[in-house]
Amino acid sequence: MKVAIAGAGKVGQYIAADLVEHGHDVIILEQDSDVIRRDSGKVPCTWIHADACEPFELQGIGLDTCDVMVAATGDDEDNLVVSLLAKQEYAIPRVLARVNHPKNHWMFNESWGVDAAVSPPHLLTALVEEAVSVGDLVRLLRLEKGKVSLVEVTLSDRSFAVGKLIGELGMPQDCAVVAVVRNEHVIVPRDETPLIAGDELLCIAAAEAETAIEELLSGRPPGRDGSSPDGRADRAPELSSDGV
Protein backbone atom coordinates (compact mmCIF):
# COMPACT_ATOMS: atom_id res chain seq x y z
CA MET A 1 0.00 0.00 0.00
CA LYS A 2 1.26 3.49 -0.87
CA VAL A 3 0.60 6.15 1.78
CA ALA A 4 1.25 9.90 1.70
CA ILE A 5 1.57 11.73 5.02
CA ALA A 6 1.31 15.51 5.23
CA GLY A 7 3.26 16.82 8.18
CA ALA A 8 6.50 15.50 9.63
CA GLY A 9 5.88 16.32 13.24
CA LYS A 10 6.04 13.65 15.92
CA VAL A 11 2.64 12.26 14.93
CA GLY A 12 3.45 12.13 11.21
CA GLN A 13 6.85 10.55 11.78
CA TYR A 14 5.49 7.93 14.13
CA ILE A 15 2.77 6.95 11.66
CA ALA A 16 5.32 6.80 8.85
CA ALA A 17 7.76 4.66 10.83
CA ASP A 18 5.01 2.26 11.85
CA LEU A 19 3.77 1.89 8.26
CA VAL A 20 7.28 1.37 6.90
CA GLU A 21 7.87 -1.32 9.50
CA HIS A 22 4.76 -3.08 8.21
CA GLY A 23 6.06 -3.01 4.66
CA HIS A 24 4.15 -0.07 3.18
CA ASP A 25 5.49 2.51 0.72
CA VAL A 26 5.43 5.90 2.47
CA ILE A 27 5.87 9.49 1.30
CA ILE A 28 6.24 12.29 3.84
CA LEU A 29 5.39 15.83 2.73
CA GLU A 30 6.97 18.56 4.86
CA GLN A 31 7.29 22.27 4.12
CA ASP A 32 10.02 23.00 6.68
CA SER A 33 13.41 22.18 5.15
CA ASP A 34 15.06 22.28 8.57
CA VAL A 35 12.80 19.46 9.76
CA ILE A 36 13.73 17.39 6.71
CA ARG A 37 17.46 17.96 7.25
CA ARG A 38 17.16 17.09 10.94
CA ASP A 39 14.78 14.13 10.82
CA SER A 40 14.82 12.52 7.38
CA GLY A 41 17.34 9.93 8.54
CA LYS A 42 15.01 8.76 11.30
CA VAL A 43 12.37 7.25 9.00
CA PRO A 44 13.51 5.27 5.92
CA CYS A 45 10.92 6.51 3.44
CA THR A 46 10.58 9.15 0.71
CA TRP A 47 10.78 12.69 2.08
CA ILE A 48 9.57 15.55 -0.12
CA HIS A 49 10.01 19.24 0.59
CA ALA A 50 6.58 20.63 -0.29
CA ASP A 51 3.63 22.50 1.14
CA ALA A 52 0.83 19.93 0.94
CA CYS A 53 -1.73 22.76 0.74
CA GLU A 54 -0.26 24.15 -2.51
CA PRO A 55 -1.30 22.19 -5.63
CA PHE A 56 1.57 23.50 -7.76
CA GLU A 57 4.09 22.07 -5.27
CA LEU A 58 2.47 18.63 -5.43
CA GLN A 59 2.71 18.12 -9.17
CA GLY A 60 4.73 15.18 -10.41
CA ILE A 61 5.35 13.51 -7.04
CA GLY A 62 2.94 10.62 -7.59
CA LEU A 63 0.09 11.44 -5.26
CA ASP A 64 -2.32 10.09 -7.85
CA THR A 65 -0.83 6.64 -7.25
CA CYS A 66 -1.35 6.72 -3.48
CA ASP A 67 -3.93 4.55 -1.76
CA VAL A 68 -4.17 6.64 1.41
CA MET A 69 -3.52 10.24 2.42
CA VAL A 70 -2.97 11.10 6.08
CA ALA A 71 -3.34 14.80 6.95
CA ALA A 72 -1.33 14.88 10.17
CA THR A 73 -0.20 18.48 10.58
CA GLY A 74 -0.72 20.44 13.77
CA ASP A 75 -3.09 22.86 12.03
CA ASP A 76 -6.74 21.95 11.42
CA GLU A 77 -7.15 24.38 8.53
CA ASP A 78 -4.16 22.82 6.76
CA ASN A 79 -5.49 19.32 7.37
CA LEU A 80 -8.82 20.24 5.80
CA VAL A 81 -7.15 21.72 2.71
CA VAL A 82 -4.86 18.70 2.37
CA SER A 83 -7.84 16.36 2.63
CA LEU A 84 -9.85 18.23 0.01
CA LEU A 85 -6.94 18.32 -2.44
CA ALA A 86 -6.20 14.64 -1.89
CA LYS A 87 -9.75 13.61 -2.66
CA GLN A 88 -10.70 16.07 -5.41
CA GLU A 89 -7.41 16.65 -7.25
CA TYR A 90 -5.74 13.27 -6.85
CA ALA A 91 -8.71 10.95 -6.25
CA ILE A 92 -6.94 9.22 -3.36
CA PRO A 93 -9.36 6.48 -2.25
CA ARG A 94 -8.98 6.91 1.51
CA VAL A 95 -8.24 10.17 3.31
CA LEU A 96 -7.61 10.27 7.06
CA ALA A 97 -7.25 13.49 9.03
CA ARG A 98 -6.02 14.53 12.44
CA VAL A 99 -8.27 16.89 14.41
CA ASN A 100 -6.24 19.08 16.73
CA HIS A 101 -9.03 21.22 18.20
CA PRO A 102 -12.15 19.29 19.31
CA LYS A 103 -14.47 22.16 18.35
CA ASN A 104 -13.48 21.68 14.72
CA HIS A 105 -14.35 17.99 14.56
CA TRP A 106 -17.72 18.69 12.93
CA MET A 107 -15.99 20.02 9.80
CA PHE A 108 -13.98 16.89 9.15
CA ASN A 109 -16.46 15.08 6.94
CA GLU A 110 -16.84 13.89 3.36
CA SER A 111 -17.63 17.43 2.19
CA TRP A 112 -13.97 18.19 2.85
CA GLY A 113 -12.82 14.88 1.44
CA VAL A 114 -12.29 13.25 4.86
CA ASP A 115 -13.18 9.57 5.11
CA ALA A 116 -12.22 9.27 8.78
CA ALA A 117 -11.10 11.84 11.35
CA VAL A 118 -9.21 11.19 14.56
CA SER A 119 -9.53 13.58 17.50
CA PRO A 120 -7.07 12.65 20.29
CA PRO A 121 -9.03 14.56 22.98
CA HIS A 122 -12.22 12.67 22.12
CA LEU A 123 -10.37 9.36 22.15
CA LEU A 124 -8.90 10.11 25.57
CA THR A 125 -12.32 11.05 26.91
CA ALA A 126 -13.78 7.79 25.64
CA LEU A 127 -10.95 5.78 27.18
CA VAL A 128 -11.39 7.52 30.54
CA GLU A 129 -15.13 6.86 30.56
CA GLU A 130 -14.61 3.29 29.37
CA ALA A 131 -12.43 2.73 32.41
CA VAL A 132 -14.78 4.19 35.02
CA SER A 133 -18.33 4.06 33.68
CA VAL A 134 -20.75 1.30 34.63
CA GLY A 135 -24.11 1.22 32.92
CA ASP A 136 -23.37 3.98 30.41
CA LEU A 137 -22.90 3.55 26.70
CA VAL A 138 -19.43 4.70 25.68
CA ARG A 139 -18.66 5.29 22.02
CA LEU A 140 -15.07 4.18 21.45
CA LEU A 141 -14.64 4.55 17.70
CA ARG A 142 -16.51 5.81 14.67
CA LEU A 143 -16.40 3.81 11.45
CA GLU A 144 -17.83 4.15 7.95
CA LYS A 145 -17.77 7.97 7.99
CA GLY A 146 -19.56 8.08 11.33
CA LYS A 147 -22.46 5.86 10.30
CA VAL A 148 -21.26 2.90 12.38
CA SER A 149 -19.65 2.90 15.83
CA LEU A 150 -17.83 0.57 18.17
CA VAL A 151 -19.56 1.05 21.53
CA GLU A 152 -19.02 -0.40 24.99
CA VAL A 153 -21.37 -0.95 27.91
CA THR A 154 -20.38 -2.38 31.29
CA LEU A 155 -23.42 -4.14 32.70
CA SER A 156 -24.63 -2.89 36.06
CA ASP A 157 -26.48 -5.22 38.43
CA ARG A 158 -29.77 -3.56 37.42
CA SER A 159 -29.28 -4.10 33.69
CA PHE A 160 -32.01 -5.99 31.84
CA ALA A 161 -29.29 -8.16 30.28
CA VAL A 162 -27.93 -9.58 33.55
CA GLY A 163 -28.90 -13.22 33.98
CA LYS A 164 -29.91 -13.64 30.36
CA LEU A 165 -28.30 -15.34 27.39
CA ILE A 166 -27.12 -13.16 24.53
CA GLY A 167 -29.62 -14.87 22.25
CA GLU A 168 -32.44 -13.78 24.58
CA LEU A 169 -31.64 -10.08 24.49
CA GLY A 170 -33.36 -9.19 21.25
CA MET A 171 -30.60 -6.83 20.16
CA PRO A 172 -31.75 -4.07 17.83
CA GLN A 173 -31.36 -4.32 14.09
CA ASP A 174 -27.98 -3.22 12.69
CA CYS A 175 -26.22 -4.13 15.93
CA ALA A 176 -24.08 -7.08 16.96
CA VAL A 177 -22.23 -8.02 20.14
CA VAL A 178 -18.67 -8.70 18.98
CA ALA A 179 -16.99 -9.47 22.32
CA VAL A 180 -17.66 -9.91 26.02
CA VAL A 181 -14.86 -8.99 28.42
CA ARG A 182 -15.12 -10.70 31.81
CA ASN A 183 -12.42 -10.66 34.49
CA GLU A 184 -9.87 -9.42 31.92
CA HIS A 185 -10.63 -12.32 29.57
CA VAL A 186 -12.29 -12.02 26.16
CA ILE A 187 -15.27 -14.28 25.51
CA VAL A 188 -16.40 -14.86 21.95
CA PRO A 189 -20.14 -14.15 22.12
CA ARG A 190 -22.62 -16.86 21.18
CA ASP A 191 -26.38 -17.03 21.55
CA GLU A 192 -25.93 -19.33 24.57
CA THR A 193 -23.39 -17.07 26.35
CA PRO A 194 -24.80 -15.99 29.77
CA LEU A 195 -24.29 -12.42 30.94
CA ILE A 196 -23.46 -11.27 34.46
CA ALA A 197 -23.04 -7.91 36.20
CA GLY A 198 -19.65 -6.39 35.41
CA ASP A 199 -19.44 -7.85 31.91
CA GLU A 200 -18.16 -5.40 29.31
CA LEU A 201 -20.05 -5.78 26.04
CA LEU A 202 -18.43 -4.46 22.87
CA CYS A 203 -20.91 -3.90 20.07
CA ILE A 204 -20.77 -2.76 16.48
CA ALA A 205 -23.83 -0.65 15.80
CA ALA A 206 -25.37 1.73 13.31
CA ALA A 207 -25.78 5.23 14.73
CA GLU A 208 -29.57 4.95 14.84
CA ALA A 209 -29.37 1.79 16.96
CA GLU A 210 -27.35 3.29 19.81
CA THR A 211 -30.31 4.64 21.77
CA ALA A 212 -31.96 1.21 21.75
CA ILE A 213 -28.71 -0.43 22.85
CA GLU A 214 -28.33 1.94 25.79
CA GLU A 215 -31.92 1.38 26.88
CA LEU A 216 -31.49 -2.39 26.62
CA LEU A 217 -28.15 -2.72 28.38
CA SER A 218 -27.67 0.25 30.68
CA GLY A 219 -30.33 -0.52 33.25
CA ARG A 220 -31.77 2.98 33.08
CA PRO A 221 -33.80 5.01 30.56
CA PRO A 222 -31.48 6.78 28.09
CA GLY A 223 -30.98 10.46 28.81
CA ARG A 224 -32.19 10.18 32.42
CA ASP A 225 -29.43 12.44 33.65
CA GLY A 226 -30.05 15.02 30.95
CA SER A 227 -27.35 13.67 28.65
CA SER A 228 -27.91 12.80 25.03
CA PRO A 229 -29.72 9.49 24.44
CA ASP A 230 -26.84 8.67 22.07
CA GLY A 231 -24.55 8.11 25.06
CA ARG A 232 -22.59 10.52 27.16
CA ALA A 233 -19.20 9.55 25.74
CA ASP A 234 -20.03 11.15 22.39
CA ARG A 235 -19.69 14.87 22.88
CA ALA A 236 -20.28 15.97 19.32
CA PRO A 237 -18.77 19.44 18.99
CA GLU A 238 -20.97 22.33 17.95
CA LEU A 239 -19.96 24.90 15.37
CA SER A 240 -17.10 26.93 16.78
CA SER A 241 -17.61 30.65 16.36
CA ASP A 242 -13.89 31.23 15.94
CA GLY A 243 -13.56 28.75 13.06
CA VAL A 244 -10.53 26.50 12.55
Q: Could you explain the architecture of this structure?
A:
The protein is of the alpha/beta class. The chain folds into 2 domains: 2-118, Rossmann fold; 122-217, Regulator of K+ conductance, C-terminal domain (Alpha-Beta Plaits, 2-Layer Sandwich), CATH 3.30.70.1450. Strands 3-2-1-4-5-6 form a 6-stranded parallel beta sheet, with helices on both faces. The protein has a 5-stranded antiparallel beta sheet with strand order 7-8-11-9-10. The model is unreliable at 221-244 (pLDDT under 50). The protein has helices spanning 10-21, 33-39, 76-88, 120-132, 210-217, and strands spanning 2-6, 25-30, 46-49, 68-71, 94-98, 116-118, 137-143, 148-154, 175-182, 185-187, 200-206. The longest helix is centred in the middle third of the chain and has 13 residues, at 76-88. β9 and β10 (185-187) form a beta hairpin. The chain contains 5 helices and 11 strands, in the order βαβαββαββαβββββα.
